[in-house]
Amino acid sequence: MTHSTTISRIERLEIITARLKSDEPSTIGEIAKEIGVSVRTLNRDIKLLKDQGLPIDTEIGRGGGVRLDRHWGIGRINLNYSEAVDLLISLAVAEQMNSPLFMAHLKSVRHKLTASFSPSMKNKVNGLKARILIGESASQFVLSEFISPNRRTVEKIHQAFLMLRKIEIVYCAENGDKTKRIIEPHFLLLSYPVWYVLAWDQLRNDVRTFRCDRIIRIQSSDNNFKLLSVAHFKNSLEGINAI
Prior knowledge:
By secondary structure, the protein is α+β, with helices and mostly antiparallel strands. It is built from 10 helices and 8 strands.
């Protein structure tokens, strides 16, 4: 087989795969004619795609129907690292809400997602649920000045939270003052729809609470911290619920 023939077949397999994924009704004859190959060649290509794991159903008989299994996409979702972290935190929120509507398959989804992480990461991932706190809904006063934080800020907070890493932030207080802080994001609290970071603040040398939408700049670091218990943040939690 020449190199040009090999390339031709690779391109042909990509065309066949795209054609099947379009979910349009097709027959062996129709696809073979579109691609410009014989039915025999197309059948060999389909067999190769099946061997590679693509779930293709073929119907023998007049017309020779061919299609992808209707569940072909299940189990084939590829997530990047940031997407996986965001999904894990969302699952932890849903589990903490303990709603029967959300609980049917959450555990199995989390287990499958956790399995995609390296062994060194699994302990951190398994501890996420206990570090997500659900409080009362935000007051009208808080909502009146709330602005959703930008995606990049949320992404960096999530990653530092999961990895137990310190972050440097510029924080805007209620009165408009801006200060630079180095914080340890120990817990996340949802006071719907507002998120808070319960953190150790190196500037104040004490625990502090930061509203995510007031973090106007964030810088990641490679410096890790040791997790504190939620008891350290008791006063902070009471203060948020009192707003």
